[in-house]
Specification:
With 752 residues, this protein is mostly beta strands.
Length: 752
């Protein structure tokens, strides 16, 4: 409601000034806005960029051949328009399958798939732009022409653009990629006991992105673009090209045999991976007109010259797995592998990993026969082992130099050291232990599985901050130890199990707790840097005030998902200011990072899913829900949209109804006239319990006696919905940059 918005501006002091001339201008601005409101201007901006989108998807698969040679062709096409007007994502794919089977002894199989995807972002920009335009602003002027921008608000020097005018220009943001993947499989059944399998997979992908900002955009109405060289910088084009490829090869030799009640299975193998990428990009400024968007019309490079980079990483490993079973009762598993990665330093590239497991099928013991009528399945198992991780960019452990393209020297280009390597960087290792229980009751009418796990990660790989005097911002190192422990439980029960009708319900529950066991000096320095930044924050010249957000910190004995904030007593009803507790429990109006404590944890106490599945005479119904209980979140929406909201833009109505305005007001939010930044406070740490209706699917398979008359083998109608509703104890925004949308899918599947 525009009247309420104007009222909030008045309460926030936007139309008050001690300077007589400025006060007169403020009154005129207020009168102009009030006049518009009284004339009936009430623009619902949120509906302007949206539409109901209808997409479609088609696929066709044809196969043929005989027992020895089989072939198949797969075609698919999907048009997926977005709910933001003129946003699209179209996909086309084709696949070829060829296989050869020699007497069920030797099998060759090759599958090639090619995909082409084209995407266009909406010219209407970000949905956020429409959420912040004031409702008393008009879309068109008195002549029916789109208004380019709105008069500068009295409390700021910023210009506010009409996002619908921007949408009418020749802005462009398009991406496309073409990818192809070839899988070649070799499978040799040497005899009843020996088997050799091998696979080679090669994939390649080429990405392109093109962006263009029309020189008529309102962003170029600023003074810097009206004088001097700024006139030649209107309009901008950006182009990016990237090519990446992945090669994976593995070979596995297996042996299995029964010796009476003894069964042995052994596997030995090796694998290799190689990943490459290269890209180049550039931005060009200065275009004469909006319809002259080809890159060659630009006046100059934005960053002197184009930029680009490349990366290459390789991983190789060998492994051995041995499984032993006695009489399908006792089980013993062993696995060991050696992996090497080029991402690490020369002396730390290889690392061994392994695991050992035992199992006991109690339900197959002779003494359990009397119990099988009630408990039809009872298995316990335990595993202990180790895993490795190398999830960072290829050259982060090596010294990397950038060519200094700004100047040429007599001998050519110079180079600047850009990344400080770490030859001692080693694999991140996780030691694991788990105990598992599998049970079934009443001939598996009810099944319940449970597991408990303990994982300790050592030599955590992370970036650490370096002093500016070093010439580098950060480098990679092994920084500490982290422990995760928890349990998982899942259950399924058949309420009805007959030939033509089956109804079952299922559910799961999981709990995890992580604790930092050890941190390095580097992480302690990082924690201090976080505190210093929060204590000494000041917006740069011409920058908007950036709202405070809780930052990740690492402290021994605490969780990596802990929320650090200063404890708050709330808002003083006499002056509208927030009262904080220091570490000694004393009250103060001064916020200090030194007083931060753990005020919550985003990791829920328990989370899981539940649902039901039903089949009856060709009909199938499946519903699934997700839930989480016991966690906390920092409600950034209340900070951004209410407490630190920019009153010159459209804001949440709670700014007027919920913020302090006069002595005696008992409110959750501070003084509406305050321009101070709200620091991280326990006031916005809230308990979050969530229930989501995640998906619903309904299908009908036509009876064989009907479809045989139409020369079909199978015909099925499907309907599916996702993200049907979400109930949470915390109210916050979702889908502000791109609106949240619900999808309904109808399908027809036919097989001849």
């Amino acid at each position: 409601m525009p009247g309420k918005k104007l009222e909030a501006e008045v309460a926030g002091g936007l139309y008050e000034s001690e300077d007589p001339y400025t006060q007169q201008q403020l009154r005129m601005d207020y009168a102009d806005r009030l006049k518009r409101i009284k004339s009936g201007v009430d623009t619902y901006w949120l509906s302007q960029p949206l539409e109901v989108a209808v997409g479609h998807k088609h696929s066709l698969y044809v196969e043929g051949g005989d027992k020895s040679i089989r072939y198949g062709i797969d075609l698919n096409y999907q048009a997926n328009p977005g709910v933001m007007k003129k946003s699209t994502r179209d996909r086309f794919g084709v696949g070829f399958l060829l296989s050869y089977n020699l007497n069920n002894k030797l099998l060759f199989r090759n599958k090639l798939t090619v995909d082409k995807v084209n995407s266009k972002e909406s010219p209407y920009g970000s949905f956020r732009d429409y959420a912040t335009v004031n409702p008393y602003e008009r879309i068109y002027d008195d002549n029916g022409k789109l208004i380019e921008s709105y008069a500068t608000h009295v409390a700021t020097t910023a210009r506010y653009l009409n996002p619908l005018y921007e949408a009418s220009l020749n802005h462009k943001n398009e991406t496309a990629y073409t990818s192809w993947t070839d899988n070649f499989d070799f499978d040799w059944f040497i005899n009843d006991h020996f088997r050799l399998k091998a696979r080679v997979t090669y994939s390649e992908r080429t990405d392109k992105q093109e962006q263009f900002t029309d020189p008529r955009s309102g962003k170029y109405n600023e003074y810097d673009y009206q004088v001097g060289d700024g006139v030649l910088k209107k309009g901008e084009a950006y182009s990016m090209w990237q090519k990446s490829s992945d090669l994976e090869m593995n070979a596995v030799f297996s042996y299995n045999q029964m010796f009476g009640n003894h069964f042995v299975n052994a596997v030995i193998g090796a694998n290799m991976q190689e990943s490459r990428y290269e890209n180049e990009s550039y931005s060009v400024l200065g275009f004469p007109a909006g319809n002259m968007d080809y890159i060659s019309f630009g006046n100059a490079y934005k960053d002197q010259v184009p930029s680009g980079e490349e990366g290459l990483s390789r991983l190789a490993g060998a492994f051995l797995n041995v499984n032993y079973t006695y009489n399908n009762i006792y089980m013993l598993d062993f696995s060991g592998r050696l992996d090497g990665s080029s991402k690490f330093g020369n002396d730390k590239r290889y690392a061994p990993f392994g695991s050992l497991g035992i199992g006991w099928n109690i339900h197959n013991e002779s003494f359990w026969e009397a119990c099988k009528g009630v408990m039809s399945r009872f298995k316990v198992s335990a595993n202990i082992g180790s895993l490795g991780k190398a999830s960072f960019e290829p050259y982060e452990a090596q010294d990397v130099y950038n060519y200094y393209r700004g100047q040429w020297y007599a001998g050519g280009l110079g180079a600047i050291m850009n990344t400080l390597g770490n030859t001692d960087l080693q694999w991140e290792k996780t030691e694991t232990f788990d105990i598992n229980l599998e049970t079934g009751f009443l001939n598996d009418l009810i099944t319940v599985n449970a597991s408990y796990y303990l994982k300790r990660t050592k030599d955590l790989v992370s970036s650490i901050t370096l002093p500016l005097s070093s010439g580098f911002e950060s480098y990679r190192d092994n920084l500490g130890e982290l422990e995760n422990k928890g349990f998982e439980i899942s259950a399924r029960a058949y309420l009805l199990r007959k030939n033509d009708a089956v109804v079952n319900v299922f559910g799961s529950m999981a709990h995890n707790k992580n604790i930092i066991k050890k941190i390095s000096n580097s992480l302690e320095s990082y924690n201090k840097k976080v505190d210093d930044e929060q204590d000494n924050y000041k917006p740069g010249w011409g920058e908007d005030l950036e709202t405070a957000k809780p930052l990740v910190q690492f402290k021994e004995g605490q969780s990596t998902t802990a929320i650090y904030a200063v404890r708050s007593l709330g808002i003083n009803p006499m002056n509208g200011k927030e009262l904080f507790y220091d570490l000694d429990g004393n009250l103060t109006y001064e916020w200090s990072a030194a007083n931060k404590v753990v005020c919550g944890d985003t990791e829920p106490k328990v989370s899981g899913s539940f649902g039901a599945n039903a089949d009856w005479k060709g009909f199938n119904l499946n519903v699934s829900f997700l839930y989480q209980l016991g966690g906390q979140v920092y409600n950034q929406t209340l900070v951004d949209r209410v407490e630190d909201a920019d009153l010159t833009r459209n804001v949440d109505e709670r700014v007027l109804k919920g913020r302090w305005q006069k002595p005696g007001d008992h409110t959750f939010f501070k003084d509406i006239a305050s321009e101070d930044r709200t620091e991280v406070t326990s006031r916005f740490v809230q308990d979050e319990n969530v229930l989501e209706f995640k998906s619903l699917s309904l299908s009908y398979s036509f009876p064989q006696k009907w479809i045989k008359k139409m020369y079909m083998e199978r015909m099925k109608l499907t309907f599916q919905m996702e993200d049907i509703f979400r109930i949470s104890t915390v109210k916050r925004e979702r889908g502000l940059d791109y609106p949240f949308a619900r999808t309904f899918n109808f399908g027809l599947q036919v097989q001849f």
